[in-house]
From TrEMBL:
It comes from Brassica rapa subsp. trilocularis. Transmembrane segments: none annotated. This is CUE domain-containing protein. PANTHER family: CUE DOMAIN-CONTAINING PROTEIN (PTHR31245:SF29), UBIQUITIN SYSTEM COMPONENT CUE PROTEIN (PTHR31245). The gene is A02p032460.1_BraROA. Residues 39-82 form the CUE domain. Keywords: Coiled coil. Residues 193-234 form a coiled coil. It comes from the Eukaryota. Residues 1-23 are annotated as: Disordered.
Length: 237
């Protein structure tokens, strides 16, 4: 911020040159160190040098309100700029959190709300440079809000996909359990079938032996019948 010169009260439209050797006390902003130099030609010129980003009408009004007192006008303009900056920061932080102000009923900011905020900040600016600063803060807050919303949406989608994957894993585990039981039952049935086949093969091997025994029994039975008939004939004679 350029330093301004504190001179005696006089009309800011006057142009009274100061002697080259004279030096006057200058009013500085807190962040600046004092530098001695030749004074500007008028209080208005000094204010224009100190506040190049402000409109001329604003500077004239400040001088008029403080009776052409350069130091008082300078302090007033510094105070107004500080208040405007604090207000812009407060509104930007409020927008970044998803709300505009306490009376906005904490509603979620929409596209129209952001446009309205940008227009309000630009119209309340004191000059082109101030408008650029305010617009940049609004756009920065918008970017932060969009990034935050994007992270929230990504987190929600990730959580939903995680739940869906967990459900699929649980379903697969259930299906796997059912499949294992089906395999175990099939294995038992296959084992029982193999046992039955072994018993059948064993019975097939025993069939010839039983057939031989049956033939022997039939022959013995036939021989006994012949003897019985012979014995009956001998008794009848």
């Amino acid at each position: 911020m350029s330093a301004v010169y504190c001179g005696s009260k006089r009309s800011y439209f006057e142009d009274i040159p100061s002697p080259p050797s004279s030096k006057r006390f200058r009013c500085y902003s807190p962040s600046e160190s004092p530098i001695w130099s030749s004074p500007p030609s008028s209080p208005l010129d000094q204010l224009r040098s100190a506040f190049p980003h402000l409109e001329l009408t604003v500077l004239v009004k400040a001088l008029e309100e403080h009776g052409n007192d350069l130091c008082a006008a300078t302090r007033s303009l510094h105070s107004e700029e500080k208040k405007a900056e604090e207000l812009a920061n407060k509104e930007s932080h409020a927008v970044a959190g998803g709300t505009f102000s306490a009376d906005s009923d904490n509603h979620q900011a929409s596209g129209d709300d952001w446009v309205a905020l940008l227009i309000r900040e630009v119209t309340q600016s004191t000059g082109i440079d101030d408008a650029k600063v305010r617009a940049a803060k609004v756009l920065q807050s918008l970017e932060q809000t969009l990034s935050s919303r994007a992270r929230e949406e990504a987190g929600k989608i990730f959580q939903e996909e995680k739940v869906a994957v967990q459900q699929q894993v649980e379903d697969l585990m259930k299906d796997n359990t059912v499949l294992k039981r089906a395999v175990a039952i099939q294995h038992e049935r296959h084992k029982a079938f193999e046992d039955a086949n072994q018993q059948l093969e064993l019975l097939k091997q025993l069939i010839p032996q039983y057939q031989e025994k049956i033939r022997n029994l039939e022959m013995n039975n036939y021989a006994l019948n012949l003897r019985l008939q012979q014995a009956e004939q001998g008794n009848s004679c």
